[in-house]
Every structure is written in C-alpha cells, then in structure tokens.
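FAQ
Q: What does a multi-component entry look like?
A: The components come first, one per line:
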Amino acid sequence: MLNEGRPTTPLAPTNALADITFTANRGLQIEEPLLFEIGRADVTGVDLPEAPAVSPRLGKHARNAPIDLPGLSEPETLRHYVRLSQKNYAIDSGIYPLGSCTMKHNPRLNEKMARLPGFADIHPLQPVSTVPGAIELIAELGRWLLDMTGMASVAMSPKAGAHGEACGMMAIKAALEARSEKRSIVLVPDSAHGTNPATAALIGFKVVAVPAGTDGTVHPDAVKALLNDDVAAIMLTNPNTCGLFERDIVAIADAVHAAGAYFYADGANFNAIVGKVKPGDLGVDAMHINLHKTFSTPHGGGGPGAGPVVLSERLAPYAPVPFVRLTADGAEFIETRRQVGDTAHPFGRITAFHGQMGMFVRAMSYMLAHGADGMRQASEDAVLNANYVRAGLRDLMSQPFGDKPCMHEVLFDDRFLEGTGITTLDFAKAMIDEGFHPMTMYFPLVVHGALLIEPTESESKASLDLFVATLRELVMRAKRGEADRFRQSPMLAPRRRLDETRAARSPKLKWERPQPWSEAAE
Amino acid sequence: MRYLPHSDEDRHAMLARIGVSSIDDLFADIPAGKRIAGLLDLPTTKSEIEVERILARIAGRNVPAASVPFFVGAGAYRHHVPASVDHLIQRSEFLTSYTPYQPEVSQGTLQYLFEFQTQVASLTAMEVANASMYDGSTATAEAVLMAHRLTKRRKAMISGGLHPQYRGVVETVSRMAGDVLEMLPPDPGGTEAIVAAIDADTSCVVVQSPSFYGHPIDLRPIAEAAHAAGALLVAVFTEVVSLGLIEPPGAQGADIVVGEGQSIGNPLTFGGPYVGLFATRQKFVRQMPGRLCGETVDAEGRRGFVLTLSTREQHIRRDKATSNICTNSGLCCLAFTIHMTLLGETGLRRLAELNHANAVKLAESLSKIRGVSVINDAFFNEFTIRVPGDAAAVIEKLAQKNVLGGVPVSRLEPHHPELSDLIVVASTEINTDSDRAAYARALQEVL
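Then the predicted structure of the entire assembly, as tokens:
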C-alpha cells in the first residue's frame, strides 16, 4: 500500500552533491546505465550450438526486421543486475514496517525446497500419473489451510490476493444464481483495501460504502442499515486495516446471513490470528489467504504471490476447476467440469493450469517449519511487536482511535505533526535517511495522514528499540521546527525525491534510442 | 523456533512495557467463545532436516522433465535457464523487497521493470508494455476487458485456436462481468475462419499465434477486418521464444498483445508462478491494467524511475480502476529480463532457430511412423499429430515407457470427441537426437 496517489513534485534541493565525482558515482553507490545503453545486438551471454540444417517450416511467417534487443556477456550481466540490486531496500537489510503488507523474514529453506526438481521441473500438463507428489502437496497444503481456518473447502488456483478475491466473489455470484437470485450490491467499508471495491466492480457488482465507527471498527447497526434483498455480500477485512479486530464480527455475519447475503473476508491480515481464532467460526463464507504475506513466500519486488480461497459449506460446490478431491484411497485431480459429476457446480476457471505451485511449496515449507506451536507464537509475536512500537510512541505520536491495544499493526494519524509544516510524506521520507524503509502512508483512507506500522514477528527487541528511538528523535526534530530538513529528505538514498508529476504528465514507459542531434533539431 | 528472535525474557519485558500482564490481553477483542483453546490440530515445529525430508519425499514421487525424453508444451515450455539467472533473482535486495512504492530506495526494482517493459515492447513490436500480469491466460482476459472499455462494446470473438484453458478463463471472466462472448469451435487445422464472424457489435477478436495447435497465423487480414468493423485485434502467444523467428503481432496490426513469458527465465513449476506479458499502443495506455514504470528525474535532476499513471489502479481508483490486480509477477519479470539480457538479439534468434530445427526434425521422424500424421504445414516449435485411436491412452502408455510425449487434446477439450486422436507435441533446445529417437521408438511400440 502507499501514498494517496497524488503525484508529487520535489522541491529544489538546497544541498545537492552533484558533480563532486567524475563518474557521478558516490563511493559504493554506482550510477548504472540502462541495459540498452551498454548492451550490443551482436553480444550474447549464452553459448548455444548452431541449429542443425533443416528445411524451415515457418511458412510465410518468418521475421525479417531486427528485434532491437541488446545483449550482454555473462560477467557484464552479473555486474549490471548486482549494481541494480544495491539500490534496493530489503527485509534482509532492515525492518520493512509496511502496514498491511506483512514483510516478514523469508526463510531460505523455502527457496531450496521450491527448487527441488520434483517441484520446479514438472509440467502442468504432463500425465497426472507422473505427478502424484504435486497432487499430494496441493492436497496437504489445502488440508493445513482448512484446519487453520475452520472452513469446508479451498480453491487453490488464484494467483494472488486480488485474484483470490475475484474467485471468492465469483463463487458468491454463482451461488446466488443457483438460488435464481440476482443481487447487485456489495458492501465494502471505507477502510478496505482498494482491491475489494475493484474486485466487486470487475464482477459486475455495485459498491456501497459502509462507514466505520468512531472507534475504527464496523458496527452491526451500520451494516444492518444497508442490508436489503439486493445485497449480495459484504467484504470485510479482519483484523481491519486500522489494525483492530472487528469485535462485532459474529453479529455482522449473522445479520448478513439473515439478509440472504454472503460474508467475504479479506484475509490479508490473517497473519495476526493464525492459531488464535478460526475465520470459519466467525461466520465467514469465503476468504483468500495471501501466501506471500502470512506464510512468507517472498514478495519479490511486487510478486509473484498466491491467493488460495477457503470456502464455507454453502459456497464449496461452486469452487472453480481445477481442484483436488480427496477420496478413500488418496486424492483425485479434477481438471474439467466434465470430471466433476453432480456433486459440484464449478463456476468456471480463473487461470490456465493449477495455481502457484512454486509458492505452495514455499508456504508448505514455512508451515511445516513452524508447526501449530510456531504459527501461534508467530501471530502472538507479531501482535506483541506492534503493541511494543505503540507503547514506545504513544506519548509522542497521535492514534486516531485512542490508545488501546492493536493487532499486528499500529496506526497513527498526522495530528502530531500539526503546526510543524511537515506532512506524513515528509516524515516517511526522513526515515529513509535514517536507514529505514518507511511505514505505509496515507492508508487506510479513513484516517488523515495515516502512518500504518507493521513490524512483523521477525524483528528482535533490539531492532524495535532502535526503530522506536529513531522515530522519537524524528518527532522531536519535527517539533523543533526542522521542517526544511524533512522536506528535503531523503538526502542520502540512491535518489532524492522523484518527480512523479513529470512522469505522469508525459509518460516515458520504455527506453527510446536517442535521436541524432540533426534529426532531433528538426 | 528458529525464525522468531524473542526469548521468553524479551516477551515478558515487552508485555511489561506495553502495560498488560499476558499476551492474551492483546487478543481480548476476539470473542471469548471463539478463541482456539490450545493448539491447532496440526504437527508441531520441525527442524530444517525434518522439513527437507518430508518435502523431498513428496517431490520424489513426481517425474521431473529432465529425467526423461520430454516433449510437453501446450502453454508451458521447458527451456534451459542460465545459472546466473537463478543466482541473481535470489539476491536479498530483489527477493525480499516490496512493490517499489518508495522509489528513492527501490531504483533497482524500478530500473529492471523499465528494462522489462522495453524488452517486451521490442519483442512484440508494440509501443508500450506494462510491468506484468499473473500469466498469459489472465492477461488475455484482461485484454478482452480493456478492449470492451476502449470500444464501448461488450462482445468478444474468440478464435478456435486459442489455448482451451485460456478460452475457459476468458469465458468465466466475461460471464461474471455480464459481457457477451462468441466462441468459435476448436480449430486444429489452423483455418482461422474468424473474419467472417466479425460484426458491428464485436469489441475485439482474440487470436493466438502460433495457435494452440501450433499454426502460425497471418494476423494482417484479421486486423484489417477487425479495424474495418471498429473492433480491435487482441493477439495472444504462449511461446515467447517464437518471437525470435516469427513476425511480431505489432507489425501485423495487433492493438493489444498478450502472452505467456514463462519460457524465458522461469521454470515449469507445474504451472506457476509465471509471467503475463501485456503490450499495446501508446494511445491506449490509460486503459491498460497493471503497474507501469516510467522515467523521470529526482530533485537533483538525475534520471530515476517511478511507478506511474497510478490513477488507473485499484489503490487509487477503487471500484473505477481498470483492473483489480495488485501483486503481479515481479520476480518472474526479473528472471525474464536477465535471461533476455543474456540472450540478446543474437542469442534469442539462435535459440529460436534451434527450437524450430529440433521441432522440424521431430516432426519428420514422427511422421514416418505408420498411422501417425503431422497436421501442420507450418509451425514453430510445436505441432499437432494425429494418432490411430485414443491419444490420451497413447500418452499414458508412452509415460509408462518413460517418454513424456505431449498433451492429448482431449485432456483440455473433453467435450469434442472429434479431437480425441490429436496430440500437441513440443520440442525445444533441450531435446537431443537420442530423445527424439527414444520418442519415435516408443510411439511405434505403443501404437
């Protein structure tokens, strides 16, 4: 999650370091050109044998024009991408306290397991008889997810959280159609992730916002006031994006069900409650699980993820193909509607093949390593760490709903910056100079200038102590009136603030060969 | 537990600082009657050795592609990935970073995304590409939705040469969105009768080239017919290596080009994670789904990169967004970009030539077997054979002889008995003469 989306233009710097070196490098910060500026069309880093002589059978379809793809030798390639990597912040180099994103430790065992040839080197359409282990892994991971959530069935194929949302909402639409009902409204709280309303709209629903109460949670009365026989579902995140557990969730679920609607839970924050409570016991009908958050398959700079969806008894028959059906003597792999029989009514297919096997293996490795005890401890430590940060900052920073326990993330608003001339964005950017990745800013939208901190269970007490001490110092500086320093920050990162307005106004989305000056002048 | 840093002493000290007496006080908002008493009914924590033992046993039950003569394609392809690709994508700074929302400390990710977008645009001969979708099939469904937005029409025309599971995804998404879909019957012969079906309500025609059955398709007449009717051409590919040798869709009039990028840099992994490629014309960019990385400058005037045109996306526009996609295929893009950088134009062309030559040799050798015919005149690295009898049974018997000989069409098109004697066969640079000989020998034996 990120800022409020208004592109920003940086101020002119007061202390530019430009031109102090011949190379423009700054010690270990190397200025790396684009691949297209250093690569050559006739260079390759892969030695391949000459193709054997055959009579080509391309018909009239051969490519004649050059592709314009420069290549690099192997050492040049290594150097190019290693230098690029050094411009990134990463969990492995420090706390990454992005609220709602769950940037926890990524065990390398998971990477090793995903690369076993029996997982990495199997084709989705090789004969099913040659991949019993793949079916076993999907079934086993599914069993763990069902045990943890207390739900009836799981659809494994969604590729990411938002894809899982789509899967769950499609199951709801299919279930309504099976009841010969055509309901058009989906209720979504103001504080929801943007994917929730986007998903509902994608599937043809109209989104109606549910206002949050003054305590940051959704009240049953607010939901009841909006329920009628045109409401298909509510999409609710729990713990919610303010870092609070929706206390009245059972009453809300009961009201939703009484109105003939379904309860979709956004499982992005499931990591706070694994081993503490089962969503199935709270009346949930469908919930996606971000394996790349809760079960630590790496974020990889933006993906890939995986978003299996657990379903209640009522929605289970509508799960999309493919799925694994447990049988008396093992597991059966169902790929097409034809194989299903009368027991189920899959609503269709949401992706080619069978889902993110590479992520399934990593998540399974994570779950096996933790076990029931380790996963409960991880949830408890995640909540403990967020509250420890809250305790360390509550006297200096402002909490929108008062000082009370939070779940796995703690939310502040920007009232503590009032009168300083410093915005949430400035404050976050100053953290970069101190060597920290900022927290999530300007989300959730229901809180002014929100700063959402999720430390995760991976941070030690010492790490949190330094983080808290740094934020305290920054708050003091802000209150001392050092606004200019905040507005100029970051000053010590690989780049200063970037001109987002310019990027959006005249989009330059790929490298263009520079025009010779004579042509360019025309 | 080795992944959790706190000692019990730390935990006590932290609870004291927070001002509560036990961890349960922090979970007090969970209704008391609903809390889990004790532990989940699952095994307890395990050492690395134990986890490795369990997962290695499960992995060991599968037949890896490298262990047998292997000719399976149909949307996912086994190619050789240079060792440095997997090394580089496992660098902490790439593997354990988030979406580059803080550009000052994410220039590494942003710059490779910019390189990725440029490479995809060059390969497809399109003007602009995004920073990836989940895979080729979901990219195809998104392309159809985008065409609806651009044309303000809601009827898509789907070619019979489109991968059956891609057809399934488009069909599901269209039905759920309340759109209309006209699906042409499966087209194993590559006749592409789609032009005649275009009418004034058609928003787009969706055509795969090379088709699911391996036929390269002449997209020009289809693009012309579509444009004449005010519709768009969505061109799809499942084998990106084909673009090293075959005329790109952008040069043939395609308006949106989508495809599967797995072949470059990414292992088979039973179907995912893969990387969806998505390219279009500059004038359509504001209707594109997914993230876009753009060039700009920082406060000191130095070149830098940011995510841009975010007002299309769900986190800003919510229910008015062009797509609900958030997480995409970041690390798979990186693998693609590094592998493509290693190949360069020279390497990609040679790779494509090698694939084609191997497929030609395989087609020649299989077509000599009595009762077997290759139905394609033209193909890239994949073609369709007709065998006497039930193709699925043939593939199963080949597997028993340790040859993975392709995909029986009936597995994906179970409702079309007329296709039950067809097998889609792929050959890439990994296949040797002895692999091909083993295939031909085994096929002869099982028929």
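Q: Is there any commentary attached?
A: Sometimes. For this entry: Chain B has 13 helices and 13 strands.
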